[in-house]
């Protein structure tokens, strides 16, 4: 079951999808990428989600990358 915060993020990504996609893509690396992947899947522990929100606040260009990851997961679920 997804946390309320994750649902809020999904709604944001759906609502502002075109705007987010229009921004320059910068990809996270290392530990940040691993945590963002877990966050996209809804498996990042709640205590680490707060850190993730702060990380995204400092790196807003990663939101587009995160949106692509979430979309990719949705496609996988439908297949």
Fold and architecture overview:
- The protein has 79 residues and is mainly alpha-helical.
- It has one domain (4-78).
- Helices cover 75% and strands 0% of the residues.
- The protein has five helices and no strands.
- The protein has helices at residues 4-15, 17-21, 30-41, 46-58, 62-78.
- The longest helix has 17 residues, at 62-78.
- The two termini are 20 Å apart.
- The model has no long low-confidence stretch (mean pLDDT 80).
Approximately what portion of the residues adopt beta-strand conformation?
A: under 5%
Please state the structural category.
mainly alpha
Radius of gyration based on Cα positions: 12 Å
Straight-line N-to-C gap:
20 Å
Shape summary: globular
Oligomeric composition of the shown chains: single chain
Number of beta-strand segments: 0
The topology string of helices and strands comes to: HHHHH
Low-pLDDT parts are: none
Sheet with most strands: none
| SS field, number of helical segments | 5
Mean pLDDT: 80
């Amino acid at each position: 079951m997804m946390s309320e915060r994750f649902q809020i993020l999904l709604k944001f990504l759906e609502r502002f999808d075109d705007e987010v996609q229009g921004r320059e893509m910068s990809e996270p690396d290392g530990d940040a990428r691993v945590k963002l992947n877990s966050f996209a899947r809804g498996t990042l522990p709640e205590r680490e989600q707060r850190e993730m929100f702060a990380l995204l606040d400092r790196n807003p260009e990663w939101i587009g990358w995160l949106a692509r990851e979430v979309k990719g997961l949705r496609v996988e679920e439908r297949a």
